[in-house]
Amino acid sequence: MEWPDPDSEQRYEKRIWIGLAAWATEIAASLHATYGELVELHVGAMRFPERELLGNAHLLQVHGEPAEGAGLGVEPLAPLTVRSGRHARRDLLITNRTERTEVLITNGELSSAVTNSSGAVVGRFAGPHTLARVGFEIAPQETRPVPVLIGTASIVPELGYAVPPGQWTLVVVLQTETGSMLLAPLDLTVSE
Asked: Where are the domains of the chain?
């Protein structure tokens, strides 16, 4: 059974929305060629085939103070590598170098943005986020693993739908229980 019935003279007025991962441009092209204006296609963070950004200005920026200056050290357990157009969860080691307990507020994982050499945001995770509030408590002078979500959906139309392979910077956002927004830059390799 298919709906709407392709043989029907009656047309469904509302376009069918289909969201695809940033790597799925060939699938999007096939759907667009087959169904044209009957479908509204989103690939990563952009409309397909227009390459029009779906998000708001929040996607284009990361704000905060350096995490190191606030006494929090951030380092990867292993070199960070993610395939172009994909996303991954990796553990980072967070070290609290202060004399007070810090609690990082997350939805279960730290958020991040991929930036270019000049610091402009070029990629993020494009997909649903859980709204759960999960705190990661880190005692003074303690180090603990905390997961980060790394997304390589491009938010720069000139780059295409996915951040291309190469060397980039991952800016990890740490939100503390006191409301501070802290940033930690790490090396990131985006692979084929």
From this structure: 16-54, 63-191
Report d(CA 94, CA 72) in Å as an integer: 7
**pLDDT digits 0-9 by tens, 82-117:** 999 999 999 999 999 999 999 999 999 999 999 999
Q: Report whether 136 contacts 96 (CB < 8 A).
A: no
- Six-digit token string for 108: 């279960």
How many CA atoms are closer than 13 Å to the CA of 17, on its beta-carbon side?
4
Global pTM value? 0.89
Strand order of the β-sheet with 72-76 is 72-76, 87-96, 143-151
DSSP class of 25: H
d(CA 114, CA 81): 12
Q: Among candidates 85, 86, 153, 155, which has minimal Cα distance to 120?
A: 155
- Non-local (6+) Cβ contacts of 133 within 8 A are 105, 106, 107
- Residue ranges of alpha helices (H) inside 92-192 are none
Element housing 7 (H / E): none
- Greatest Cα pair distance in the chain: 72
> Percent of the chain scored above 70 by pLDDT?
93
Q: Which superfamily is assigned to 63-191 in CATH?
A: Immunoglobulins (2.60.40.10)
Whether residue 151 contacts residue 123, with contact meaning beta carbons closer than 8 Å, is answered with yes
